[in-house]
Design a protein that fits this description.
309 residues; mainly alpha; two-stranded antiparallel sheet; 1% strand
Length: 309
Amino acid sequence: MGSNYGITVQGLLAAAVRMATPLLLAGLGGLFSAKSGIVSMFLEGFMLIGAFMGFLGSVLTGSAYLGVLFAIVGGMLMGLIMAILAVSGRANQTILGVGINIFALGITSYFQSVLFGSKRPTNVSVFYDLPIPGLSKIPYIGAIFNNSLFVYAAFLLVPAVWYVLYRTPAGLAIRAVGENPDSVATLGGNVIKIRYCCLLIAGALAGLGGASLTIGQTGQFMENISSGRGYIALAAMIFGRFSPVGVLIGSLLFGFADGLQLRMQTAGTAIPYQLLSMMPYVVTILALVVFVKKSVAPAAMGRPYTKQK
């Protein structure tokens, strides 16, 4: 019994970490835009574009690494579109984010149908699990250290993002723009440039999160493959009180719920799979209900900036 229990724990931990990875990458990207005062409602769309572009790049080039490059470029292009419309055009950021999500769903479904149809490409290069010597053999938790490069990169980005945001002049400028852009402009800072850069970073990281679903996990692209994970990443960011460590905790919580429902399905539980599939979304709703009042967003979030003459 002990051995079976150990295998079950390792499988659950491995699934939780894998499920948390796309949320963590997208959440960290959304953190940059949120800290600069931009509502990160667009994460779902950015992830979908990244998922499709990563898959397409891998099919066209035969290289998973070039697929990652495609995903990053695709995400950054979406970030540029968002910046032009929200920062320069001063459009409503929430409505614009929802529009981008709908646009991404439509355009990826269309090109998936046109380029691949019902055929599933077999020449997809993907990232395989890369065990860390020694650590991957640790009982119970060793499965955490037997994952793809996407997983390792996502978790290593947490301290890197924390350092950039809280220990560098650039991070100070980003946070200041999110709190009081007029003061930053008065002191000579370029608010528009900072917000553009943050949206490009958000696009790159969210696109990378989307690619982790295709060339990092499934090896295929399916319509709406993100399945609301961009919204869960947004919830993880709010749950984590707009901090990198908080995003990590929130992503792990939702990833654990997703991993648990997957393990319960494969275990042949009597609970209908439709109810099990609801688990991550139910956890998301409960977390937001409990913690949304305790989460303090940047003061200037959602407010268009007009350059003073």
